[in-house]
Amino acid sequence: MNPVKILDVTLRDGGYRNNFGFTQDFAVSAVRALSEAGIPFIEVGYWNGPFVRKPGLGLTSRVDGAYLDTLSEAAGGRTNLCVMVHPRNVDDEDFAEIVRHDVEMIRVCLRDDQLEEGLATISLAKKHGFMVSANITRATELPLSTIALIATLSERAGADLICIADSNGSMIPADVQRIFARLTSTVGTPLGFHAHNNLSLALSNAAAAIDAGVEYIDVAISGMGKGAGNLHLAMLIAYLERVGRRHDYDLVKAMQLSAYAAEAVAQNSAPVPLVDIMLGAYNFSFDIRQKLSAQAGTEQALFSAMHALHESERKRPRPPARTGSPEGHAFMPSREMLAAVGHSLQS
Q1: How far is it, in rounded angstroms, from Cα 112 to Cα 118?
Q2: How far apart are CA 252 and CA 275, in angstroms?
Q3: Which of 270, 217, 219, 228 is nearest to 34 (CA)?
Q4: Read out DSSP for 83-138?
Q5: What is the pLDDT of residues 265-323, one digit of tens each?
Q6: Residue 41 carries which DSSP code?
Q7: Whole-angstrom Cα distance, residue 258 to residue 250?
């Protein structure tokens, strides 16, 4: 049984909690403490920005060489730095620059509607000598056959790791088991899992992934992450201890780091908002919440809008079953449907 390899995503995914406004001092402290706790991989931000680039984002939304050099020094050779890229934001020159700054892994966001670009980016990163993670995002919105196909194509493109992301926080352990049972029989590349905690199942889902043979598990300090957050670093280590799973992680240092982050980072340990529970229950993406929030005005109206969208979809003829969503299908509201709900809120 392979040991679980923890990959911390605080400085990247945690940025959705504070507009990526980490200070460099915090980033240095986090990398140093994570490396001392034995964490082998640390994702330190986006190169050239997240998928939707907008003004006013902070340090880790768009990292540069000087930042990477500073964190490499903090890591002291005890851990591996990773950066995440969106295929449309990077080219050959970007990888030629990143490779100069002691980055071990490139994590490529894969969307099924931009798959060709994503696969080309995997191959390009491999050409520059990086370890490459193919991150299949919003997996609950995809049929299992599509997930398996993307994984197969990613393996052929040279990916060293295939990570399944429960971006909407909608998975339950049975979904995790089903997906990884299929993937372990489809590809030979090591597998990873990125959980979100909308249904308070991040740890349960990660445990199911580990039981299914997944080697890489994404975590964040205090669970910082988009929406309801990610799997809590210290909780995973505590779980490994509880079940007697062999590991080399320092739980005390992980707990101390969580306490430090709670003081140093605004909103780092906020409780799960009720809206995020609805996102998980209905398999809605974080983007839908943002689109409706501007129209709803109040939280109660936002609840009503999400419920109306769900009911509208439930009454429509359903497409073939998709993996991991309520009643066996994923919810993808059209612009017209969003506009109709927005109009009803204002009438």
Answers
A1: 9
A2: 33
A3: 219
A4: EEE-GGG--HHHHHHHGGGTEEEEEEEE-GGGHHHHHHHHHHHHHTT-EEEEEE-S
A5: 877 655 556 678 778 888 888 888 777 877 777 877 888 888 888 888 777 766 555 55
A6: E
A7: 13
